Amino acid sequence: MSKKLSVPAVLAALAAVLILSGCGGSKSGSDGGASAKKILYYRSAMNPNMTSPVPAKDSMGMDYVPVYADQDAAPEKDAFEVSPYRRQEIGLRLGTAQMRPLVRNIRTVGWIAYDPELYQAEEDYLAALASARAAQKSRFAESRHRAQALLASSRLRLKLLGLSALQIAALGRADKPDAGLLLSRGKNSPLWLYADVFEQDLPLVKMGQIVEAMSPSLPGQVFRGKVVSIDPVLNPATRAARVRVEIKDPGGVLRPGVYLDADIQISLGVRLAVPRDAVVDTGLRQTVFVDLGRGYLAPRQVTVGNHADHWVEILKGLKAGDRVVTSGNFLIDSESDFRAAAQGFGHD
């Protein structure tokens, strides 16, 4: 038969248990550390933008979760938090900054034409070259100087019309102007395509680059050629320079005066790039929003380079592997500006 304990004995035993549990719980208990943390505020689990200084419930009856002092620190100074609910609401999507080959396509309009001016310039140069060679035998220095001056003038004219030093040297060796500048040399002979390239694209255009052209009147046919000369002088009215392309016409269907849509393909090599939609361009600055994890985004000022189809080269401000916002970033930009302004007035 068990022995009954008196009331004072029971109370003493309970007190001992409480004292022992209080002494050992902070050392070995799993929640001792959490209970010692300072709670800053409470926020909705569904929408972290909704907060409360005291425990509360959201519209669905779910308890707000506590936010502790060492939990709320942003990964970097300008970072701000965007909840999963808000990300879904604005359609936020992410992409990656990556090293990739970039190909720039410069699209312009060209036309098939003969070039009697260039033909005449080539003919004048060859005549001046012959005169300079003959004058070398003259015993009169003035005749030699005059022949050299005429040769230099005719060479300069060819350069102004877009011929390079190598092309001028090749013309001298051929010792005859290009008859294709005046008329077709046969069904498979190359034709001259002239196209205007705007000032901002000119540094990318080099001789020998591949050009593809198509005519609306000849659907499905692609004519290929290469850049053979670039005018060194801009047209002040259009801010463009004329590019000459030697184009193939195997079927003999092109005629002078025909307009073509020309596409100059330029390989830029492997560059760090982000999707075009990742860059928010205000005119004064270019910004990309980087995903830092834990729901945080941060704006990064970037320096952009070439645009290539759906990609933009990044010269400064990002590194390969950075996760960037590619959709919804205009709303994110306006929201981050609003938060910065609110913090400037002392509001969180």
The side-by-side strand order for the widest beta sheet comes to 6-7-10-9-8-11
Q: Mean pLDDT, nearest integer?
A: 81
Strand content: 25-35%
Cα gyration radius (Å) = 38 Å
Count of DSSP H/I helices: 7
CATH topology of the domain at 80-102 and 269-344: conserved putative lor/sdh protein from methanococcus maripaludis s2 fold
Helix and strand composition category = alpha+beta
Share of helix, binned: 25-40%
Distance between the termini: 68 Å
Keywords:
348 residues, alpha+beta, conserved putative lor/sdh protein from methanococcus maripaludis s2 fold, six-stranded antiparallel β-barrel, four-stranded antiparallel β-sheet, 7 helices, disordered C terminus
Tell me what you see in this structure.
With 348 residues, the chain is an alpha+beta fold. Among the domains are: 37-72; 80-102 and 269-344, conserved putative lor/sdh protein from methanococcus maripaludis s2 fold; 115-181. The chain is 29% helix and 32% strand. The chain contains 7 helices and 17 strands. It has helices spanning 7-28, 32-36, 84-90, 116-135, 141-160, 165-174, 329-344; strands at residues 39-43, 51-52, 65-68, 80-81, 93-96, 98-112, 191-198, 210-214, 223-230, 240-247, 259-275, 280-281, 286-293, 296-301, 303-308, 311-316, 323-327. The protein has a 6-stranded antiparallel beta barrel with strand order 6-7-10-9-8-11. Strand 15 (303-308) and strand 16 (311-316) form a beta hairpin. Helix 4 runs antiparallel to helix 5. The chain is elongated and about 105 Å long. The relative contact order is 0.15.
